[in-house]
């Protein structure tokens, strides 16, 4: 049986196709990720983006639409995925996907383009509690993106630059708009870009950490969402949360879509 | 994809829709060479910089231009822009006061004064001595100021953590819609039904929400109206925290956007005092007037 999870985020669409496989002697059903496909930002027409991403994933996996038993959607734009059977919250999907990948994880930190949240999960991957940003985009990917623009670095260079610095420069501004000016001021005062990059990522991490603390940091921590691709942020987050290890999936932005596909499979029974 | 969404999501053009036009003005009926005391105020804001010349305590001329990436040059260029037109040299100016976010970066200033004091003083000149409540909305800040009949600040409040309710939000919308900022106000009233205000406070979120509204079939004008209303509601809540007294006056770039101004007036139930002077120069004008007062005091000694 094949199910699909579509995560319609504020900046990108993620699709995961999941195939349930039979393993001799196993009590629990096993799954294999059939194909993950990412639709990058730029396509802002939500309906088309979901449709396109889904078709591309099907094509890559060599699966036809009829073979997909159930399609669940999650993310801020889940309501716009017209062909989805059902919509589930990002917290439900994120927790399920994270615990599937790391059964020992109990705290899920999800940092996407416009959202950052901390989720507390039980051993089954059920979200027990969560806290997220509601009114302000500081503490999310778009904040880091705006700052890398101000620094004229690509996102990759930005994360790598931060790792080269061991300085702690406080960023006073929380607001994305203010922080941009602050970054420009730092550039003019001849602060090395590495130090500024670290200051920015430290600020995002401390902001995210404050949210996660509201639900409590317990057990193993897993980081999901696009910001997981920024090694500087991962380092800053570890320091801010005061933990030795942050579990980091190879494709952190797909974890919610994966959780979504898993839940779709479980609910078919 | 409908045409408006397509337009909004097309590759961004180089054209800068979000900037107010740079402008220079001076009083042609006067000659600065007749003045005893010439003072200058320079307001280096986050987005634009203004240089104002005051001759014997009267507004003589100004130049408004963008703030470059290098503050000392912004101040110099702003002043040079007007001096070149009237054949004035820096030596002809008796006193220079810097204000605004980049006020410490005006290399030739004799003194730096906060923009709050300067805006109150400038508003007192522009709107007359009846002005008691000033709303200053600049590129990145929004302030509610109370002052007395001399333009002296008695109380103020400002946004310090978040740029919602500042000019930056309007710039983002102007850029997103690819509509010059000066057209936003008039277009916001060109709607059949007034939409609900945009609900997001954060500039980053509001941009996404605006795109969502376009996708949901709102016209550009409706999105602009929803955004102007949100901005008006936001600043009115700031104003109400400090209290609004009659003699209401708006300064800063947003004062040039009737879409926001008229909605603020509607929400408050009072009209602002009218002026013919460009509201963006209020801070620099106040700074120049402070310079004049200081020169008079020195002369009296």
Explained architecture:
Chain A: This is CoA activase. Chain A: It comes from Aromatoleum petrolei. Chain A: Keywords: Iron, Iron-sulfur, Metal-binding. Chain A: InterPro entries: ATPase_BadF, ATPase_NBD, CoA_E_activase_dom, Dehydratase_Activator_Redct. Chain A: Its cofactor is [4Fe-4S] cluster. Chain B: GO terms for molecular function: benzoyl-CoA reductase activity. The complex is a heterodimer of chains A (269) and B (301). Chain A is an alpha/beta fold. Helix content of chain A is 40%, strand content 23%. Chain A contains eight helices and ten strands. In chain A, strand 6 and strand 7 (116-121) form a beta hairpin. In chain A, helix 3 (141-150) packs parallel to helix 5, helix 4 (155-163) crosses helix 6 (193-215) and helix 6 packs across helix 7 (231-241). The longest helix of chain A has 23 residues, at 193-215. Chain A is globular, with a radius of gyration of 19 Å. Chain A starts with a strand and ends with a helix. Chain B is α/β, with parallel strands linked by helices and 301 residues long. Chain B has helices at 3-9, 71-86, 115-127, 167-177, 181-188, 203-215, 220-242, 258-268, 282-300, and strands at 23-26, 38-44, 48-55, 58-66, 95-99, 111-112, 133-137, 142-147, 153-158, 248-251. In chain B, strands 1-4-3-2-5-6 form a six-stranded mixed sheet. In chain B, strand 2 and strand 3 form a beta hairpin. In chain B, helix 4 (167-177) packs antiparallel against helix 7 (220-242). The longest helix of chain B has 23 residues, at 220-242. Chain B is globular. The model of chain B has no long low-confidence stretch (mean pLDDT 89).
């Amino acid at each position: 049986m094949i199910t699909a999870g579509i995560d319609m985020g504020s900046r990108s669409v993620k699709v995961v196709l999941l195939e349930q496989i039979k393993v001799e002697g196993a009590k629990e059903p096993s799954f294999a990720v059939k194909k993950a496909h990412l639709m990058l930002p730029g396509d802002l027409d939500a309906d088309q983006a979901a449709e396109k991403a889904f078709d591309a994933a099907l094509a890559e996996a060599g699966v036809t639409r009829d073979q997909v038993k159930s399609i669940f959607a999650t993310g801020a734009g889940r309501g716009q995925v017209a062909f989805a059977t059902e919509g589930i919250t990002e917290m439900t999907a994120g927790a399920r996907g994270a615990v599937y990948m790391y059964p020992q994880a109990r705290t899920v930190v999800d940092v996407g383009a416009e959202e950052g949240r901390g989720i507390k999960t039980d051993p089954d991957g059920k979200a027990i509690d969560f806290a997220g940003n509601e009114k302000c985009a500081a503490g999310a990917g778009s904040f880091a993106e705006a700052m890398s623009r101000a620094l004229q670095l690509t996102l990759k260079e930005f994360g790598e630059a931060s790792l080269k610095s061991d300085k702690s420069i406080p960023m006073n501004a929380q607001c994305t708009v203010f922080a941009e000016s602050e970054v420009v001021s730092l550039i003019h005062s001849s602060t090395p870009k590495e130090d500024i990059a670290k200051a920015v990522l430290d600020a995002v991490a401390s902001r995210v950490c404050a949210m996660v603390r509201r639900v409590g940091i317990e057990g193993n921590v897993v980081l999901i969402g696009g910001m997981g691709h920024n090694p500087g942020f991962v380092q800053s987050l570890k320091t801010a949360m005061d933990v030795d290890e942050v579990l980091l999936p190879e494709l952190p932005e797909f974890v919610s879509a994966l959780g979504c596909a898993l839940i779709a499979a479980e609910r078919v029974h | 994809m409908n045409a408006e969404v397509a337009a909004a999501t097309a590759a961004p053009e180089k054209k800068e829709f979000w900037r107010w036009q740079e402008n220079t003005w001076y009083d042609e009926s006067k000659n600065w060479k007749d003045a005893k005391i010439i003072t200058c105020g320079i307001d280096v804001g986050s987005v634009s910089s203004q240089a104002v010349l005051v001759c014997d305590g009267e507004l003589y001329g100004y130049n408004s231009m963008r703030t470059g990436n290098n503050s000392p040059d912004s101040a110099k260029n702003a002043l040079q822009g007007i001096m070149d037109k009237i054949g004035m040299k820096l030596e002809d100016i008796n006193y220079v006061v810097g204000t605004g976010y980049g006020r410490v970066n005006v290399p030739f200033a004799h003194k730096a004064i906060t923009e709050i004091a300067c805006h109150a003083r400038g508003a007192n000149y522009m709107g007359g001595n009846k002005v008691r409540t000033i709303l200053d909305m600049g590129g990145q800040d929004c302030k509610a100021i109370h002052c007395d009949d001399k333009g002296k600040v008695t109380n103020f409040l400002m946004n310090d953590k978040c740029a919602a309710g500042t000019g930056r939000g309007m710039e983002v919308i102007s850029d997103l819609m690819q509509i010059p900022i000066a057209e936003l106000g008039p277009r916001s009233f060109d709607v059949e039904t007034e939409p609900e205000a945009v609900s997001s406070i954060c500039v980053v979120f509001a941009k996404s929400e605006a795109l969502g509204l376009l996708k949901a079939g709102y016209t550009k004008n409706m999105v602009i109206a929803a955004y102007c209303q949100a901005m008006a509601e936001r600043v009115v809540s700031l104003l109400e925290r400090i209290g609004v007294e009659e003699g209401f006056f708006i300064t800063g770039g947003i004062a040039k956007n009737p879409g926001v101004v008229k909605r603020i007036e509607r929400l408050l139930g009072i009209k602002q005092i009218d002026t013919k002077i460009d509201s963006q120069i209020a801070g620099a004008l106040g700074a120049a007037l402070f310079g004049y007062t200081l020169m008079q005091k020195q002369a009296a000694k």
